[in-house]
Amino acid sequence: MILPGDPAPTFTQKCSTNWGHYSFDMAAGKYNILVFVPAVQMCLTSKITDTLKDLLKLKKSVPIEIFIVTTSPQDEKLKSDDFYYIYDLDCNVHNIFGINIEDITCVITDPMLRIKEVLPQHAIAYDIIKHFLKNTIPNQNVPIPALLLTDILEEEFCHALIHYYHHNNPTPSGVLTKNAHGSTIEKVDTFFKRRYDCKIQNQNLIKGLQARIIRRVVPEIRKAFQCTVTGMDRMIVSCYDAAYKGHFSPHRDNTVEGAKHRLFAISINLNDTFEGGELTFPEFSSQRFCPPAGGALIFSSALLHAVQPVTKGKRYACLPFAFNEESLNTARLQSG
């Protein structure tokens, strides 16, 4: 059985989402209420149902998400606009949480996906859960495990990259995801992400970018994170345009095949003539980060992060990833 303070197990399971499944690692940034039941119609008592309805009213003031985790095949077609049904027919979610499939149990996690409360059936009451949520310390100023560096790229080099972008046919940026067969594909989803990318193929620019990162970023990664990176990939120049409502919804950078070797994201701003476009880390706080032109924000590829909408102008950025031989080997082993 999981206990308060434990990291919540992550899972991917069939769900009432439009795409048919849910990856729980994407639930970070909110307080999550998971109600485990053997069967919805048999086990959701009026008390629990009323509790869930009352909790929905808290969404305006507290970032919460509600999941009903059921093992009954009869529940597999249930859907709701208010919460998610997790169809745990193979009992995998119950098993990794240590929940008896015959019990009704409520589990609450914090925005970092750490267990905060485990409530048996008799304690699943609105007043108890509301009191917990209202008295939880808000995550407004939690330190972010990220490195903010200035003076990575000179102004002239930034201008050269922006010039290259405008003269080499940028295209809509896709999102790496899995298809129905579990294979990694790149899909353009303008609801989730609106950005244009241009792959850098000019060898002088590639070598210049690599040299500056090796000289100015790699030593700081080693010092701050005690990790030596030896390689870079995804040499691109990107643009978040206010006219296109440029943004990127919360995501992680190392969750699918072809990306699992990535250790650190390096987000380098090439200009400062824009508004919005800040990076946020919803697992930790609501703080927004925006390096100056030529500066970079470096962070683990495993962290949930988002790019806020650009509201004025265009944000140009260079967005490589860093890795090493150990991360490459680990990714190969995970891929079988």
Automatic annotation (TrEMBL):
<keyword id="KW-0560">Oxidoreductase</keyword>
<protein>
    <submittedName>
        <fullName>2OG-Fe(II) oxygenase</fullName>
    </submittedName>
</protein>
<dbReference type="InterPro" id="IPR044862">
    <property type="entry name" value="Pro_4_hyd_alph_FE2OG_OXY"/>
</dbReference>
<feature type="domain" description="Fe2OG dioxygenase">
    <location>
        <begin position="231"/>
        <end position="325"/>
    </location>
</feature>
<keyword id="KW-0479">Metal-binding</keyword>
<dbReference type="GO" id="GO:0005506">
    <property type="term" value="F:iron ion binding"/>
</dbReference>
<dbReference type="GO" id="GO:0051213">
    <property type="term" value="F:dioxygenase activity"/>
</dbReference>
<dbReference type="InterPro" id="IPR036249">
    <property type="entry name" value="Thioredoxin-like_sf"/>
</dbReference>
<keyword id="KW-0223">Dioxygenase</keyword>
<dbReference type="GO" id="GO:0031418">
    <property type="term" value="F:L-ascorbic acid binding"/>
</dbReference>
<keyword id="KW-0408">Iron</keyword>
<dbReference type="GO" id="GO:0016705">
    <property type="term" value="F:oxidoreductase activity, acting on paired donors, with incorporation or reduction of molecular oxygen"/>
</dbReference>
<dbReference type="InterPro" id="IPR005123">
    <property type="entry name" value="Oxoglu/Fe-dep_dioxygenase_dom"/>
</dbReference>
<dbReference type="Pfam" id="PF13640">
    <property type="entry name" value="2OG-FeII_Oxy_3"/>
</dbReference>
<keyword id="KW-0847">Vitamin C</keyword>
<dbReference type="InterPro" id="IPR006620">
    <property type="entry name" value="Pro_4_hyd_alph"/>
</dbReference>
